[in-house]
Write a structure and sequence with these properties.
Layout: H1 2-19, H2 43-46, H3 50-55, E1 57-58, E2 71-86, H4 89-102, E3 108-113, E4 116-124, H5 127-139, E5 146-157
Length: 163
Amino acid sequence: MKKRLFGILWLALWAPLWAQEPAAVVEQDESFDPLDLYEPSLPILDGSMIYEIITDIKEPSATDRLDRDSARVVEKMGWKVQIYSTTDFYQADTLFLKAVEDFIDQELVKEFNSPYYKIRVGNCSTREQAEELLDRAIELKYREAWIIRTPVKTEEKLFLYIY
C-alpha cells in the first residue's frame, strides 16, 4: 500500500513536467547599433560655448533681443532681492500684486520651486545695487527680504563700426 501511494504521489508531482511542451527558442534581433543614432555633439567639445564659459554670459533667445542694434539683452549672474517665500499660491499671488505697485520701476518675478512660491525683484548687476534695493524693500515693510545671487538679464552695449 505504501509503495502504491508513493507511486501515485511521485506520478502526481512529475506528470505536469512531462506534459509540458519544450519552450520554443526565440531568436533576438541584434541588428540595433547605438553608433548609428544621431546625437548632437556636446557644445563644450565643438568650441561653441567657450566664450560663454569664460565670460559667464549666455546668448539670449530671439524674444529677449532688443529692437535697437546698439544694445542687446544678455543673461549673466547677478543679484535679485527675494521679498517673500511661501507654499500658499494665493498668498504669493496677493503679495505679488502688491509688490507690482511698490516696485513699479523694477522687474518683478514670481517663481515656483516646489513647494515654494518665491517673489523676487530687480536685475542688479552689482551687489551694491542689490543692497540699495534691499534697503528699499525693508522700508516698504518686506521684513523677510534678502539678497540672492541668480541669473539676471542685463543690457550689453554693442559697438558697431562701419567701414
